Each structure stands twice: as C-alpha cells, then as structure tokens.
Amino acid sequence: MKRHVFITGGTGYMGRSLIVELLKRGHQVRALVRSGSEKKLPSGCAAVTGDALKAESYAAQVPPADTFVQLVGTPSPNPRKAQLFREVDLASGLAGIAAAKQAGVEHFVYVSVAHPAPIMQDYIQVRAECEEALRQSGMGATILRPWYVLGPGHQWPYLLLPMYAVASLLPGSRETARRLGLVTLRQMITALAGAVENPARDVRVLEVPAIRDGRLPIED
Predict the structure, then answer these.
(1) Rounded to an integer, what distance in angstroms lies between the CA atom of residue 173 and that of residue 168?
(2) Separation CA 109–CA 199 (nearest Å)
(3) What Rg, from alpha-carbon coordinates, does the chain have?
(4) Is the dihedral of CA 93, 99, 101, 104 positive or negative?
(5) Global pTM value
(6) Distance (Å, rounded) from C-alpha 10 to C-alpha 96?
(7) Whole-angstrom Cα distance, residue 57 to residue 199?
(8) Distance of CA 114 to CAs 120, 121, 138, 173, Å?
(9) CA 184: distance to chain centroid?
C-alpha cells in the first residue's frame, strides 16, 4: 500500500537517504524545510516551508499525509549540548506530534535513543519525554531506539567494535552491549521504511537488535 509521508528533518543525515528510499518504493513524500533549503531535498520530494519548532507554521500543510516521520535533532549530540536538546529536539518533537495529531495522521514514526545508558542522560530524558507525549497522543506510533548510527562522516565508533565483541560474551554486560550496539545507516533506513509501510496500531518500539534484524514485531 502506497503511503503519503510527511517528514521533518528531511535534509539531514538520515532524512535524505530515507526520502530516496521511500520514493524508490513508490510512496509520496513531502518534507518540511526552512525557506531557502528546498534544493537540498532529493528530486521527487515536495517541499513544505515552515519552522520545525512551531507546529502552527506547517500543521495545515501536513494533510493528506497518513504517516509522519520525525527526524529533527541536534547534530553530533554530546553532553555539552543539553540546552540544545530541549530547545531543538524536544521542541521539534512536541511540535511534530501536535501537527500530526491536528492533521489526523494515523501513524507517527519517531527516532529516539537506546536507554537506559550510563551517559547522555539529558539527551535520553528529552527523547523519553517525546516518547511519552506520543503515547498520550492516541496515534499509532513506531519508536526506533538506536544508540549510534554508522555511516558517512559517522565512522569513528568502528574502533569500539572489539570492545562490543568482548562485552557481548560476558553475562554481566551482554544485555547492555546488545541494547547499546551500533547500527548502520542502511539498517536504519530499512527499519524506517519498513515502519512506514507497516504502520503500528498502538505504540511499537524497535530496539537495536530489531533495527539490525530488519523485521518488525508481529502485532496481535
């Protein structure tokens, strides 16, 4: 079934690749952009001008989308960006949820973060608040929880792979190593496209193992 998809963060690290994949699969895609950034979108994607932090600036243009994908976030998050997490990640997440609900969207796809974790508590807190807002919204939702997404310009964590291999063998750290494992950009795009094509009726959460596996949980 072909979907009408509305995306925020479509010019970013995951956004452009996801748009290309969805268009290749035959879906209709529109993306929210700031004025002047329209040319950054892949060919075939319609641009909607607005402010991702203000639902009222674009909510009326979300219809006829049946699926909303929220990808806006602070680039290269680190513990020093706590204020930006609230000003950008939280504000855009809540704005997206409000705009989608107002537009009657059936399915909301949200990229959160793997947790619990020993670091990045401010980032995790913001993402958890958006997850809770989604649960309260009444919309069907798919929440993806990667820890770090490997891809062009995001490759230094490959150096950590030996550490992950050892941790995955130890009973005391095996579960944490799985939950906070690394995923590739290709795995994320496949999981996101799969979520778009198979909307959840309630709230579905995809942790790192499910993102890597590429198979969605079966709903009752």
Answers:
(1) 6
(2) 9
(3) 17
(4) negative
(5) 0.90
(6) 13
(7) 26
(8) 10, 11, 23, 15
(9) 14
**Helix, strand, or coil here: 151?**
strand
As given in the structure block, the two tokens for residue 35 are 């004025």
- pLDDT (tens digit, 0 to 9) for every residue of the chain, 220 residues total? 899 999 999 999 999 999 999 999 999 999 999 999 999 999 999 999 999 999 999 999 999 999 999 999 998 888 899 999 999 999 999 999 999 999 999 999 999 999 988 888 999 999 999 999 999 999 999 999 998 888 776 655 544 555 545 445 556 655 665 667 789 999 999 999 999 999 999 999 999 999 998 877 666 4
Cβ atoms of residues 188 and 170 within 8 Å: no
Alpha-carbon distance 197 to 42, whole Å? 20
Q: Which domains does the chain have, with CATH numbers?
A: 4-152+180-213 (3.40.50.720)
Residue 199 has which token pair?
């909307």
